[in-house]
Amino acid sequence: MATVLVIDDDEVSRLAVGSALEANGHEVHYAPNGEVGLEFYGKSPTDVVIVDLAMPVMNGLRTIQELRKNYTGARIIAMSGVSPEQLPLAEESGALRSMAKPVNPTELQQAIEEVMRRSMGWEGPVD
Length: 127
Fold this sequence. Notes:
This protein has five helices and five strands; from the N terminus they run E-H-E-H-E-H-E-H-E-H.
């Protein structure tokens, strides 16, 4: 399974996503905003980073841009419940996938598998 960093300022959402990931055997780390998330990732890179778009301190789009600039191999999934219209911008900024909140646990697992496969050069759909 993967190590995943969940960056979300909303504690309930952060823990809900983390619980779904842990139920599928993933190791999960948490950050309450983009600034803390970037610092954590710089010290302990994870297999996947899940970033909420609407956050104070450093919003999700900026976090994605900084991750891609400083860590070109970062595998990023964007999520948003407040501003889903920004999800296409997240992908343009470097997220490999984007999802509207609330996140469905099955779809989240599929997204994790997809970004892991895509990063290994396999571009086909997830089974």
